[in-house]
Structure to design on (661 residues):
């Protein structure tokens, strides 16, 4: 349904230079599939999500490659065509629901607006849709709360409102960028369960951007690991957790505290992510990798190592890397 | 824990209240908390936002005065001290904050920041201070060439190490760690947590480790206190609290933690709590957790539960918990 081909995003600098944020990303999301995009801060995962909906300021950003949505390249669409897709076929929710909601309109008005943008219905009917939407995401007394303002909702309820707004047009793809990071763990559990249920029930595909591998394990069917602007691994979630084929994915999994005995020494990945302006050639993870060899200095190619499992590492086939089950 | 060892921190019925902006109401951030922290231990405090854990942490190092109750540090109530004696006493109780960027002055070099506590403490020459500062930096794994750099030239992990070094310069007995790895990426969290463990062994430090991250607190702590809306719900040895909790809130909290395991190994049943933490301005009567508790009974609204030791050194505030665990959830008739 969504296929991203060789997507490279770079920011134009005021002085005339360019900083490459992502390089030749490739991944796809099938209908009804839930894809987790994981990686640490600065790896380009948020920018990737924004670029699918063309939400990056085009004057400052150079995007190359293709974003094919049901065969149509979104990057080539005129802005009017894009507007017809945003919110209708592909919707997005963000980390901080308070900044994404307008404080001077009721939540009902905001959800109804999203609906009326795409469907020629009366205000009364759009309002009905808003109430239905609030009920679907588990907001009690939806007919009353539809007339309340965002500040009258708690953090978790606001995120439910955002989800209701994103789903009101029944999009086929929902992009969720760290939707539970600002929430407490008990509320996070409510929201992740809700997203999974809604996706299962309506067949909505999900692109779930997060740094939390536990959340990915619970919500997603497949996961893409990003490192320094590249996709380094793409695999079914259970496969990636048990048998990661890229040393970075393995390192991320091994650094989870729950896999180390109480008070034992925690594994970590040495060094730090190279900055976009001084990106090394060859494998970008090489300087931090325990398995690096001379061949890692060459350009790395994404290779299929087992059915549906792709890794960008020349040693992927020979290495036996630890996952969450030691 | 032997009884002849004096606790390093002794907290009794601590209350910290703040007036709301218009002064008409009171936020009861901490509302009746008591526990002891023993020398050399890591005391974990978990809780969701609004549970009062950050307020508690600040009070433990004297940054907030108790509204009622007491905090005795090393046998001394700091309220009985003044002037130089108080300043000398306070050096023993340090805090490291969540945001490593905000905690460093962007206009000061690393070394100036690290030496500042010593300057305030007084008594050392500039050269001595710098020597001690450089020593602290090397203990946290920051090479001397970083000493003259500015915070913006460093990564988040390095900045957090510098904040730790700064707390170490005055050779404290206890450090309150308030969400110290929350702002760090997963791949370097381990490094910083290992550093805390190393420093503890080397200097015999005591930690109060405050976090909302269950996997972090379960890893580093000897004991865990579970806070909810300004009160303790449960307190006990880490493994016992994690694996055999006594309080329905702890049980739900642990079950909500997303587990990075493949589906065939994910066995735990999730207890999804309804709603969110109520306002600390007007907390529920009786047990504060009752409005979200799956096992609440009429008695929970009428009286606050006693603090009971149901297993050795394992305490809980619930009317209905037994040594076997929390009460069973109520069975609701189909609506």
């Amino acid at each position: 349904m969504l296929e991203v081909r060789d997507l490279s995003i770079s920011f134009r600098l005021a002085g005339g230079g360019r900083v490459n944020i992502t390089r030749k990303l490739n991944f796809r999301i099938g209908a009804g599939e839930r894809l987790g995009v994981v990686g640490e801060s600065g790896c380009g995962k948020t920018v990737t999500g924004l670029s699918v909906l063309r939400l990056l300021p085009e004057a400052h950003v150079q995007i190359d490659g293709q974003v094919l949505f049901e065969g149509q390249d979104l990057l080539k669409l005129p802005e009017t065509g894009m507007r017809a897709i945003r919110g209708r076929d592909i919707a997005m929710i963000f980390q901080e629901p308070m900044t994404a909601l307008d404080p001077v309109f009721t939540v009902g008005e905001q959800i109804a607006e999203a609906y009326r943008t795409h469907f020629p219905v009366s205000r009364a009917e759009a309002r009905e849709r808003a109430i239905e939407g609030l009920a679907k995401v588990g907001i009690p007394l939806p007919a009353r709360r539809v007339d309340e303002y965002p500040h009258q909702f708690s953090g978790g309820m606001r995120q439910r409102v955002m989800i209701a707004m994103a789903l009101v047009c029944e999009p086929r793809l929902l992009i969720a960028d760290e939707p539970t990071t600002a929430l407490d763990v008990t509320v996070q559990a409510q929201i992740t369960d809700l997203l999974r249920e809604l996706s299962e029930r309506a067949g909505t595909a999900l692109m779930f951007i997060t740094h939390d591998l536990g959340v990915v394990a619970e919500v997603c069917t497949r996961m893409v690991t990003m490192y320094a602007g590249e996709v380094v691994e793409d695999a079914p979630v259970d496969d990636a957790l048990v048998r990661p084929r890229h040393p970075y994915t393995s390192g991320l999994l091994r650094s989870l505290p729950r896999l180390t005995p109480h008070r034992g020494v925690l594994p970590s990945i040495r060094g730090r992510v190279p900055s976009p302006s001084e990106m090394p050639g060859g494998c970008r993870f090489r300087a931090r990798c325990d398995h690096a060899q001379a061949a890692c200095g060459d350009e790395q190619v994404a290779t299929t190592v087992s059915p549906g499992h792709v890794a960008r590492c020349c040693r992927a086939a020979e290495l036996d890397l630890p996952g969450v089950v030691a | 824990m032997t009884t002849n060892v004096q606790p390093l921190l002794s907290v009794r019925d601590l209350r910290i209240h703040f007036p709301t902006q218009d002064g008409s109401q009171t936020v009861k951030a901490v509302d009746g908390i008591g526990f002891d922290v023993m020398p050399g231990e890591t005391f974990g405090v978990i809780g969701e936002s609004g549970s009062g854990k950050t307020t508690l942490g600040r009070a433990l190092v004297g940054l907030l005065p108790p509204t009622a109750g007491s905090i005795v540090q090393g046998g001394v109530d700091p309220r009985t001290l003044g002037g130089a004696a108080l300043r000398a006493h306070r050096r023993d109780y340090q805090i490291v904050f969540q945001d490593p960027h905000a905690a460093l002055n962007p206009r000061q070099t690393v070394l100036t920041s690290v030496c500042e506590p010593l300057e305030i403490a007084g008594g050392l020459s500039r050269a001595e201070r710098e020597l001690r500062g450089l020593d602290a930096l090397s203990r946290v794994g920051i090479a001397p060439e970083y000493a003259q750099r500015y915070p913006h030239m460093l990564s988040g992990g390095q900045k957090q190490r510098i904040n730790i070094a700064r707390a170490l310069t005055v050779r404290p007995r206890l450090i309150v760690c308030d969400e110290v790895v929350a702002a760090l990426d997963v791949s370097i969290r381990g490094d910083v947590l290992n550093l805390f463990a190393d420093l503890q062994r080397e200097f015999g430090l005591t930690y109060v480790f405050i976090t909302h991250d269950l996997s972090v607190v379960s890893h580093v702590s000897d004991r865990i206190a579970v806070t909810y809306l300004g009160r303790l719900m449960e307190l006990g040895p880490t493994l016992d609290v994690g694996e055999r909790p006594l309080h329905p809130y702890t049980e739900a909290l642990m079950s909500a933690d997303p587990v990075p395991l493949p589906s065939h190994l994910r066995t735990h049943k999730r207890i999804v709590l309804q709603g969110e933490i109520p306002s600390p301005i007007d907390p529920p009567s009786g047990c504060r957790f009752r409005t979200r508790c799956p096992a609440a009974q009429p008695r929970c609204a009428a009286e606050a539960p006693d603090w009971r030791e149901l297993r050795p050194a394992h305490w809980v505030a619930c009317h209905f918990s037994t040594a076997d665990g929390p009460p069973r959830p109520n069975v609701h008739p189909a609506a």
